[in-house]
Write a structure and sequence with these properties.
By secondary structure, the protein is of the alpha+beta class. It is about 40% helix and about 20% strand.
C-alpha cells in the first residue's frame, strides 16, 4: 500500500456524514491497543475513538481520538485507512489554504476586549489565564517595554480568556469579573486585569471576590451593577465563546498568541513579538503596493 506523509492540519469546507458508531472494517480494540503503544500512553489514561466521518483524503476515515485522565483531557484528530490498518495522528495542512487566515477566521473577535486601533493591519490575539504566571509576565513585559504604546496605531491587541480550571481554581471566576468590568467600558477590563495580575500571588479562590471588589472601588464604576453581574455570572457567555474558540484551535497551554494568525505558544518575549509585528507590517506594505 502506498505510504502517505502528512503535514499537520487540513480544513475541509465540505460537510461529511457522521457515523453513529465505528464504520465497518474498523477494529477499535486493535487500533486503541496500537495507539497506546505507538504514543507511549501511560496507564491510567483512557483512550477513546469517536466522531467518525468520511475524510477528504481518499480511502481514509477522519475521527476524534480522546485521551482522558483524572483532571483533564486532550483531543486529537486521527485519520484511519478504511481497512483499519494504517492511521495518522494529528491534523493535516492543505497547501492551497492560507493557514494564518484560516486560524483568524476560526476566532470570534466581535466583542473581545482590545487595545490599539480597531483597523490596525496587525492583529495579535492572546489566549490567557488570569492565574497563569507566564501570562502575567508576558502582559507586564509588553506594557513595560511600551509595545502597546509604540504600536498603538499599527496593532490591535485582543485578549481571549482560556482558564485552565483543572489547575487554576479562581481563573474562571476572575474572567467573569473582568468581562463584567468591560460591560461598563473597555478600559475597565484592562484596569481590572492589571490589578489581578499585580496581586496574582496573593489571590486565592476564597478571597477573590473581596479582592476584586477592592479593585473595583478604585475604578469608579457602578459597584452595585458590577456585583450583580459578577454574582450571577452574567458574562458567562463571553467566557464560553472564548473557550469554544480555544478548543477549535486546539490550544493546550497559556499564553498562546496569534499574530495575524501565526501561532506562538508560550511567552515569546517582547523582542520576538516586535520582530513578528514588523514582519507583518512589511508584508502589509507589499500587499498595498500598486
Amino acid at each position: 500500500m502506498k505510504k502517505f506523509s502528512f503535514i499537520m492540519i487540513f480544513f475541509s469546507l465540505l460537510i461529511t456524514p457522521l457515523f453513529a458508531e465505528s464504520p465497518q472494517g474498523i477494529n477499535e480494540e486493535l487500533l486503541l491497543g496500537s495507539l497506546r503503544k505507538a504514543l507511549s500512553v501511560r496507564s491510567g489514561i483512557e483512550l477513546r475513538l469517536s466522531s467518525f466521518t468520511e475524510a477528504p483524503v481518499p480511502a481514509f476515515f477522519r475521527a476524534q481520538l480522546l485521551a482522558s485522565w483524572s483532571g483533564g483531557e486532550r483531543r486529537e484528530e486521527i485519520y484511519i485507512s478504511k481497512d483499519g490498518r494504517y492511521y495518522v495522528v494529528g491534523k493535516m495542512f492543505d497547501a492551497f489554504e492560507d493557514m494564518d487566515q484560516v486560524r483568524m477566521h476560526m476566532m470570534d473577535l466581535s466583542n473581545s476586549p482590545f487595545k490599539g486601533s480597531s483597523t490596525a493591519p496587525v492583529v495579535i490575539v492572546e489566549f490567557a489565564d488570569f492565574q497563569c504566571t507566564a501570562c502575567k509576565n508576558a502582559y507586564q513585559a509588553m506594557k513595560n517595554d511600551k509595545l502597546f504604546a509604540e504600536y498603538s496605531e499599527k496593532v490591535k491587541f485582543v485578549f481571549k480568556s482560556y482558564p485552565v480550571s483543572s489547575q487554576h481554581k479562581w481563573a474562571e471566576k476572575a474572567s467573569i469579573a473582568a468581562f463584567c468590568a468591560q460591560e461598563q467600558g473597555m478600559d475597565n477590563f484592562w484596569q481590572l486585569l492589571e490589578s489581578i495580575y499585580e496581586n496574582q500571588n496573593d489571590i486565592v479562590l476564597e478571597n477573590l471576590r473581596q479582592r476584586v471588589m477592592e479593585y473595583i472601588d478604585k475604578m469608579g464604576i457602578d459597584k452595585k451593577k458590577f456585583e450583580t453581574c459578577y454574582d450571577k455570572d452574567l458574562t458567562r457567555n463571553a467566557l464560553n465563546r472564548d473557550i469554544a474558540d480555544a478548543k477549535k484551535l486546539d490550544i493546550y497551554s497559556t499564553p498562546t498568541f496569534y499574530i495575524n494568525g501565526r501561532t506562538v505558544i508560550g511567552n515569546p518575549g517582547t523582542a520576538e513579538l516586535k520582530k513578528l509585528i514588523n514582519e507583518f507590517l512589511g508584508q502589509s506594505k507589499v500587499d498595498a503596493a500598486p
